[in-house]
Design a protein that fits this description.
The chain is α+β, with helices and mostly antiparallel strands. The chain has 19 helices and 29 strands. α7 packs parallel to α9, α16 (about 510-525) packs across α18 (about 550-565) and α18 (about 550-565) packs antiparallel against α19.
């Protein structure tokens, strides 16, 4: 009997009942891990991918468009996400471009010409786009920026005395040949800046912390785009001060926060050192054909597309309720080292790590908040005292010391950490959850030190409360799960509790001994964790899978530590030598069996690999606490629309239409219908969130909030006593099912 049949036979003892979402045809009450039992990821060029998709030999193509400018064959679906910005960056060291007025005048003419040029981009001369959740907060500024530029025909290039260096295919299509400069004497560069490249230095490799909690916010990406180009010292200092206030929650309420963010973006754009022209969307195709070859239940990230944790956690094959072989193509070959601390930085690596790693929380696919995965949290934001027995890593050594007396915090986060065994069968313990804090306090790799800076700046203390057991009763059998209860104290707080909880969750996808092994390998010169550090030191970029010389060195270290029962100094008191020896022995046995060191507690494990491909196998461990269907609500993002707004004195009444899902067998159709009736008669998640922002004549946000939903199918905004007499602009947008992407914004004057 095959492994699959054995698993199926065991699972049929469980009570049959639907899982979390009607969109998935799941029939078992609990089935651990995710849908396909094997995922094959292969580097394929776009032309070959187009043929394979047409022949139903590929389920999805990740990261690229195999049909640029062409018509895809029938049976394919696609998703779109924010791919890159189109920007013009001025050479401020050259002649007149050092002068702000000259730069801004030239930028006005250049952007107007580009606005009239035909190309595969969306004209949007503002860095906060419809793919950002804070788009509503900037909508009036964005529309004002568009009105500044009157599209001019290419014939007007004679009025532009600029030498332009186009960088990339799109820029060369857009920039008139009469203005191109290929030599060193250029005035301005027109180029694409990929969002992935923009945020990459701020991602964190530990996978407990995937980056700053605002990594998908428009104001933050505007800061990344512009801050490094500012020429004036005063402007730089002012921008940094505003950024620090927003990033540390140094504001009183939501209105003040919105004004700070708007002022920051305006200041960044003021000097015209870099001008955003528009944005380019990424289109990724998948096989949507009937049962035998297609895939369904597909979620994607609004900015990362398929290269995201949510895609792997929802996608399923149409001809299997679970299991099956998922075949994915990626545009580029894997070039980054495969190590989970400073590697997996290219598109294939991020996709592999999205499956093999298991983040405690990951970015919400269609907004800028976060989704709990292996940790759930409750946030208390207030001035409070840190318990004296709470632990804090000592800078430089990483030793976990009691914080002592008179320490204060702005937030306390109570976490429930869902533990489960690692791939080497070693159970996750408190030591695994704590060790990343120690590692972050003493890494000498410049890239990792920079990406973990936020954790060091915010962390005020960690306190382990207890270990609980959760029991899932499946009638004929019981499954027992270990849950670590841990408090984390933070020096700052934010408006969104889920963003606060994403700063420093007590979690690691890696067993502590693997992190220790990589640290020791770096100390002994076997390699460096990041590519930048490897280049600086002239050593290999540490690879746990594909570099045999590195693996030989790691195997020798594992044997040395196994004999010693080695416990790193920060974990003494949490781990005994006997427990450590068992850990090192398990890691040795894993390597001898698997021939690599990539041990995680994720839903997939590395099975095979070659120069251009990797095969991942589902980790069907019954104490893995996340079952099928948990994230299916994201598989079909729906939208809501404002159908009518009426003024009733100082009140606004808003009527809405929503998209509803209609199912026929295994096909789904979205139908737009009016929202009517009381909330009690409407299913959970079927009532949109109606957000509004009121801007005064001076451009400042006066008030903002969420409209209330009443019993007759409309939303109400009561502004009585909130506004002074004068003209106001009220912006309203609806979001449904946590989807804030591409909202329809209505404006009332």
């Amino acid at each position: 009997m095959t492994r699959r049949l054995i698993l199926l036979a065991a699972l049929l003892f469980a009570l049959a009942s639907p899982l979390h979402d009607a969109l998935a045809d799941d029939v078992l009450e609990f089935y651990p891990s995710y849908y396909p039992h094997e995922i094959r990821i292969e580097a394929i060029d776009p032309a070959s991918a187009a043929k394979l998709l047409a022949k139903n030999s590929l389920h999805a193509y990740v990261g690229g468009d195999p049909f640029p400018g062409g018509k895809p064959p029938p049976g394919l679906g696609h998703v779109e996400s924010l791919g890159s910005y189109l920007v013009a960056t001025f050479n401020t060291a050259r002649g007149a471009m050092a002068n702000r007025d000259a730069r801004c005048a030239s930028a006005g003419t250049l952007v107007s010409i580009l606005a009239a040029a035909k190309g595969a981009y969306v004209f949007h001369p503002y860095p906060v786009t419809p793919f950002h959740m804070d788009y509503l907060h900037h909508f009036d500024l964005s529309e004002s920026a568009k009105r500044r530029y009157d599209p001019r025909p290419v014939s007007s290039v004679s009025s532009l005395a600029l030498k332009i260096r186009p960088n990339g295919t799109l820029a060369k299509q857009l920039v008139p040949s009469a203005l191109r400069e290929t030599g060193p004497g250029w005035d301005v560069t027109v180029e694409e800046i990929a969002v992935d490249d923009l945020v990459a230095p701020h991602r964190v490799g530990l996978n407990g912390w995937l980056g700053p909690p605002w990594i998908k916010e428009g104001w933050f990406q505007a800061y990344l785009l512009h801050a490094g180009t500012l020429r004036e010292k005063i402007a730089k200092q002012a921008a940094e001060a505003l950024y620090r206030r927003v990033a540390t929650g140094a504001y009183g309420d939501e209105t003040e926060r919105f004004n700070l963010e708007r002022r920051l973006v305006s200041l960044l754009r003021e000097g015209c050192e870099r001008v955003v022209v528009g944005y380019i969307t990424r289109r990724e195709y998948f096989n949507n054909s009937d049962y035998s070859e297609g895939i369904e239940n597909i979620a994607h990230d609004s900015q990362a597309g398929f290269t995201s944790p949510i895609f792997i956690r929802t996608v399923k094959l149409k001809d299997f309720l679970w299991n099956g072989w998922l075949r994915l193509g990626v545009e580029t070959k894997p070039r980054a080292a495969w190590n989970p601390l400073g590697g997996f930085t290219d598109a294939p690596g991020r996709l592999i790590w999205a499956a093999v790693g298991d983040p405690g929380q990951f970015p919400a696919p269609y907004n800028s908040s976060w989704v709990p995965n292996r940790v759930t949290s409750m946030v208390v934001a207030n001035e409070l005292e840190v318990p004296t027995e709470a632990l804090l890593p000592e800078p430089g050594t990483g030793l976990l010391r009691p914080v002592g007396e008179a320490k204060r915090a702005r937030a306390k986060v109570l976490y429930r950490v869902l533990a489960s065994p690692f791939h080497d069968k070693v159970p996750m313990t408190v030591a695994d959850a704590l060790y990343p804090f120690s590692f972050a306090s003493r890494s000498h790799d410049l890239l990792i030190a920079a990406s973990t800076l936020l954790v060091r700046e915010w962390l005020a203390g960690v306190k382990v409360l207890r270990v609980e057991q959760d029991i899932k009763d499946l009638h004929d059998k019981q499954l027992t799960f270990q849950v670590l209860i841990i408090e984390v104290y933070l020096k700052h707080t934010l408006a969104d509790p889920r963003q606060v909880a994403a700063v420093a969750p007590p979690w690691s996808s890696l067993p502590w001994q693997l992190i220790v092994l990589m640290e020791e390998a770096v100390k002994r010169g076997l390699g460096a964790l990041s590519q930048e550090e490897a280049r600086r030191q002239g050593v290999p970029w540490l690879d746990l899978v594909r570099d045999q010389k590195v693996k030989d060195g790691l195997a020798a270290l594992v044997e040395e530590f196994r004999r010693q029962g080695y416990v790193p100094a920060p974990l003494r008191g949490f781990v005994t030598p006997a427990e450590a020896r068992a850990r090192w022995t398990a890691l040795k046995q894993f390597y001898e069996k698997r021939r690599h060191f990539l041990v995680t507690n994720g839903p997939y494990q590395l099975e095979q690999w070659g120069r251009d491909f990797v095969a991942l196998q589902a980790f069907r461990e019954f104490t893995y606490p996340v079952g099928l269907g948990l994230f299916n609500r994201y598989a079909m993002p729906r939208r809501a629309y404002v159908s009518r707004i009426e003024r009733r004195g100082e009140r606004l009444e808003i009527r809405a239409e929503v998209e509803r899902v209609f199912k026929f067998q295994r096909s789904f159709t979205l139908v737009r219908e009016p929202l009517a009736g009381p909330a009690s008669d409407t299913g959970a998640g079927e009532i949109p969130v109606a957000r509004y922002v009121v801007v005064g004549e001076d451009g400042n946000v006066l008030t903002a909030g969420t409209a209330s939903y009443d019993r007759v199918g409309l939303f109400s905004v009561d502004l009585r006593g909130k506004l002074k007499p004068g003209p106001h602009t009220i912006m309203v947008a609806l979001s449904l099912g946590e989807n804030s992407v591409n909202p329809e914004v209505k404006v009332v004057q």
